[in-house]
């Protein structure tokens, strides 16, 4: 896992890219003036705010991250259709349930991304991360953590856990290399 | 032609938002109710915003891309708000309907 970038003046490359794009989108133009201003903001804001932020693992494989993003977007569309069918179908047949998914990820950023993707994908909403430890980054040995999720229609618990682990957690683990 | 695209996108978006709201009314307990607004509405809003993007790009000069930003922020905030609500519900020990499985998986608050 890598926490520091190679360039000291670019502490968070993805944040810089995001700021650059957001500035251009907000102004709805690609005129030279806005490009220069966007570059300045993209470099200055992460530099100024980096002392306040806790160090998070960096994405090491951007190509994989992009492919994972496309997969998640596709899953969001299918999730919407599936949940729509579940909602419009008979309510009495639904068997809701709480499921604990053991996590292999350790840092808060990858876990947050995983929890958000779980919330946006078929029939599941993430609820909580157990156990309640907040000092994982301070060198003590990380415990096994669990993600508590609520499932709208629980059929096979183990199959669901396997899907989440293989489909969403494995790519995250690989792209952060943790 | 563009009018057709815009109308179809508006209809798709509107129906998904409607389904989300129906879920809000129809589901028996809080935890199940949360599924409608967190998911069914994201695609609905995305279609509505795409319709807006097509409309403003064709009727006015230049391309309008601000709507991408709105969809991006929606995608970021929908899971967070869902998470906050379900966390609050667990904290208040809201009752879920009887056939909910795995209720023991909820641990007590510290």
TrEMBL record, chain A:
Residues passing through the membrane, by range: 7-26, 32-52, 64-88
InterPro entries in alphabetical order: Cation_antiport_E
Keywords of the record: Cell membrane, Membrane, Transmembrane, Transmembrane helix
Tagged with keyword Cell membrane: yes
Protein topology in the membrane: Multi-pass membrane protein
UniProt subcellular location: Cell membrane
Keyword field contains Amino-acid biosynthesis: no
GO MF, any single term: monoatomic cation transmembrane transporter activity
Pfam families reported for this sequence: MNHE
A cellular-component GO term for this protein: plasma membrane
Cited PANTHER family: NA(+)/H(+) ANTIPORTER SUBUNIT E1 (PTHR34584), NA(+)_H(+) ANTIPORTER SUBUNIT E1 (PTHR34584:SF1)
Family indicated by similarity: Belongs to the CPA3 antiporters (TC 2.A.63) subunit E family.
Protein name stated in the entry: Na+/H+ antiporter subunit E
Source organism per UniProt: Colwellia hornerae
UniProtKB/TrEMBL annotation, chain B:
GO molecular function per UniProt: sodium:proton antiporter activity
InterPro entries recorded: PhaG_MnhG_YufB (IPR005133)
Protein name (Swiss-Prot/TrEMBL): Na+/H+ antiporter subunit G
Organism this protein belongs to: Colwellia hornerae
TM region positions: 6-25, 37-56, 68-86
Keywords: Membrane, Transmembrane, Transmembrane helix
Any Pfam family the entry gives: PhaG_MnhG_YufB
